[in-house]
């Protein structure tokens, strides 16, 4: 159980240079959840993915170290999201127009492994959130957000009287939920600023959203 949970909670990072295969894989009963992705080059080739051109040619072309594409996240979602594993060859044709021809690029992917069976619970600000599992099963927290998200929460409609529609989230919500609930059969916590601090402007209504499995 402990090993499985540590794999589920872990943030995975994988990278591949142009011409290499990127391979993402998650443990049994979990699937890939893409968090972020980058394709391009922002560090020189002597630090990452050395140029495959002969040295004489490489010195003639100026390497672009401010090069990225905006389609890499969507491409990774299309290829890998909600699958147990995925693998493909990295090259600029995958991502549309080449943002910097002649410069060797690389792909970096950040992902987590999400349990196939998971539950989601929401508590509005100042309400109590209760989690529980059946007998002989315990709680495994996957993610926790306390604050305000762009889309909001249907369970806790925001009153936007002159308030800007901004995102603000507690940086410690996940650690706090793990400490309070992880490995227990049941637990409860108030969705308030006393527990989580206030990541938003004063007066902005917040909510707590926890994803967990038993």
UniProtKB/TrEMBL annotation:
Keyword entries, A-Z: Lectin, Repeat
A GO molecular function held by the record: carbohydrate binding
Annotated ranges, domain SUEL-type lectin: 16-114, 123-214
Superkingdom field: Eukaryota
PROSITE patterns in UniProt: SUEL_LECTIN (PS50228)
Protein name: EVA1C protein
Naturally occurring in which organism (per UniProt): Nyctibius bracteatus
Highest classification ranks of the organism: Eukaryota, Metazoa, Chordata, Craniata, Vertebrata
Primary gene name: Eva1c_2
């Amino acid at each position: 159980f402990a090993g499985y949970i540590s794999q589920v909670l872990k943030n995975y990072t994988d990278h591949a240079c142009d011409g290499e295969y990127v391979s993402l894989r998650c443990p049994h009963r979990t699937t890939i959840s893409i968090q972020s992705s980058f394709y391009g080059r922002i560090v020189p080739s002597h630090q990452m993915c050395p140029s495959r051109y002969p040295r004489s040619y490489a010195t003639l072309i100026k390497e672009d170290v401010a090069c990225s594409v905006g389609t890499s996240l969507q491409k990774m979602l299309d290829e890998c999201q909600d699958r147990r594993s995925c693998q493909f060859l990295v090259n600029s044709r995958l991502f549309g127009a080449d943002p910097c021809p002649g410069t060797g690029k690389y792909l970096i992917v950040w992902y987590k492994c999400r349990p196939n069976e998971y539950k989601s619970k929401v508590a509005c600000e100042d309400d109590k959130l209760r989690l529980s599992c059946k007998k002989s099963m315990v709680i495994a927290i996957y993610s926790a957000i306390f604050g305000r998200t762009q889309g909001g929460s249907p369970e806790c409609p925001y009153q936007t009287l002159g308030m800007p529609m901004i995102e603000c989230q507690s940086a410690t919500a996940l650690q706090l939920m793990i400490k309070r609930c992880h490995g227990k059969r049941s637990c409860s916590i108030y969705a308030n600023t006393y527990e989580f601090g206030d990541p938003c402007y004063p007066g902005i209504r917040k909510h707590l959203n926890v994803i967990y499995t038993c």
